[in-house]
Amino acid sequence: MTDARIGAAAPAAPVPAAPPDGSPPAVDALLVATDLVKSYGPVHAVQGVSFRCNPGEVLALVGENGAGKSTVAKMLAGAVPPTSGSIVVGGRPLASGSVRQSRQSGVRCAFQELALVPDWTVAENLSLPDGAPYRGFSQRKSVVAAAELLGAFDLPHIDPQVTVGTLSLADRQLVEIARALAGRPSLLILDEASSALTPPGVAWLFQRIRDLTSDGGSVIYVSHRLGEIAEIADRGAVLRDGKVVGEFVRGGWTDDQLVSLMAGREAARFFPAPPARTTDAVALEVTNLRSDGVHGIDLVLGAGEILGIGGLQGHGQAELLRSLFGAAPATADSWSIAGRPVSGTTPVRSVRHGIGYVPEDRKREGLALEMSVGENLLVPWFRAYQLGGRPRITRERTWIDGVLGALSVRTRGPDERAGTLSGGNQQKLVFGRWMDRARTVILLHDPTRGIDVRAKQELYAAIVDLAEQGVGILWFSTEVEELVHVCHRVAVLYQGAVIDELVGERLTGDAVVGASMGLRAAA
Amino acid sequence: MTVRDAPATHSPVATGRPPRSTSVRHVAARVPRSIWPLVAFLVLFGIGGLIRPNLVTIDSLIGTATFAIILAIASFGQTVAVIQAGIDLSVPNTIAFSALAFLGLAGPLGPTGAFVAALLTGAVIGFLNGVVIAKLGLTPIVTTIAMNGLLFGVILLVFNFSELTAIPEFVIGITSAKVSVFGLEMAAVLLLGLALMGVLQLVLSFTGWGRSLFVVGSAAEAARLGGLPVDRIRVVGYVVSGVLAAFAGIVIVGYYQQASATMGASYLLSSVAAVVIGGASIFGGRGSVVGTVGGALVLAQVSTLVAVLNLGANIQQLIYGVIILLVVSLYGRSATT
Question: For the whole model, what pTM was predicted?
Fold first, then answer.
């Protein structure tokens, strides 16, 4: 499977014969997206995606985390304006960046992260977004209308008068989908809208999709669940790194082929190999760790080992790292840090025990953006009765310069405000504060997300360097290539538990992606 | 909390490149924030001089500064609270409570014992505020205003106002007594306030605790995940705030030589105003006691001008409001450029 094409009917990569700008789109296409590009600063989330969707068709968009699926869906919904490119719906260009306009052209969207107001009742959530603010609102009428709507959509078990926050996640998702359907859309976008649904819920959703397509409507179905895609999708496009890397048609593909396409085949150009392990000492050991979102994980991390954590986002990786650092409450049958048993931990104690943590959101959880580069590096090392501020920076100048130099942080010096640095350099600060500070374990939450290639290189080198010094590294990454090439071992999480542990021969991109979809690959 | 995070999360696109600015703006951006209130004060002082030339004298300067330094002492605790992204609205009745406790206990415990006891009451009040805010997670504004109301009730219940007249000698010695510096007569409180400012500024700028307070105020979650004992830092911050307010109560008693249940009332808004005009961010992570003294000077000069022009207290409140709006919008702008 080196070719990007799967199935007989797929055109040549990079795919659809989209009409050039300005020429009228083909009569029969309901949606034509041409050369969509979306950049967030230096980060190119989507780079030149084109596809079309015909009336009565279900088009699937698949890809890994960060492949650009959600960004494409948001552009179609009008929630995010494209940097360039055009979207034509029903022959008319879509005014970009306006959800309202997009809705008026018949495009409705149900998002993965629910867009319902949790404190409102089901009825209010169903009626208010469409009720123009100048029209009156009546509780009684909205409840009647909502009950009618839920009845029509075969959801009689949802009471329109309960607040959305008290519903189960699956029911909330059903309400969200019902709200999108209520607008009688000609194009319905479902962005991971089935992620919380039970099998009967999925069957219900597929019935609604079939009703819609038989009336000539189209559906864009974004999902990780290959089983669902096999059942419902007429055609599909595979996205990787913000580009369409392949297309497929119903029946013309297998799980393995799609997984390979999603994972990509790029060689290990940039990745340093993990250092040879010199000791069998254990840095961190935990059995049956339980927390909110983590359902019994056993973990052994050796000193000098780089243990990768894989899986799709939202399967417990963030919770695992937070639990191990003590930032979220957790219990375990046994738990030891560097051989010393502990009953639990808090961030303060973790730092004392030699653990360092690089959180997910560097701006909110990692840095005090108002403060200087030097002080941000020193945050874990401030003690109330010791010096702080400028005298402390002067005293620690050697260490600060060493960290800034080792990571090639591009800054004017330790006095510069951390908020003025670029994202990659900010990430280096959050990482760098743990360097050369006698750590036994460092927990990394996707440190290379959204930073440029060069900064990634520098972080890889620093991570390998730390492992060489005997620091145990637990590294959650959404980038499969990193896990495959830089880690000794990879544990893939699925629904809050380790579904598979990959090492040696079995540690391949396909195996990681497969396991993260819940497929336990054979050896 | 979420409000403070907004600027950071709303601009994932920003790469930290400041827009091009004129050289004047560039120079202005490099001046420390705590200097601006002093500049504003001098401008207002000049305006006063234009209106009434006889206002521009050393004596009138010292008079305004004395008034300002008392307000500043009352606002130092507020500064500490605001830096950690909190606020201490229990300052007024902490002032009254400690002042009345000091006078009430001066008889049985002697002046020094009463002084320590009054500061301890401030520490206890601050500790309660801090524990409720840090451990129970209540909003600072609600917690401290509830504490303020609670204290008022306690004051009315506990104190017998007719007995509170004798003011210990040493308190007068450090407040209203005249001292001579370089041949200039001034109240001792001016020197006391400046000394306190110096000590506090050193603590805030150059100690681990002071810097931790700024980290907590600037990004509490980052501080927690960096392994700082956020709750403890918060509680100690409110204790410091309470002790400083209690100290302000004793100073006010010494200077004005009277105490009443409502003696702190005027410091509710003026302490917040002095802190904000002094360059602190109400969302935390930024502020200085030097700036607070500058803010207090601006407010004092405004009230002097209002008095001289005979405009009345209502106009004074109006002008305070305008100044605060102006200052907040100016600081908000400079933060984005």
Answer: 0.75
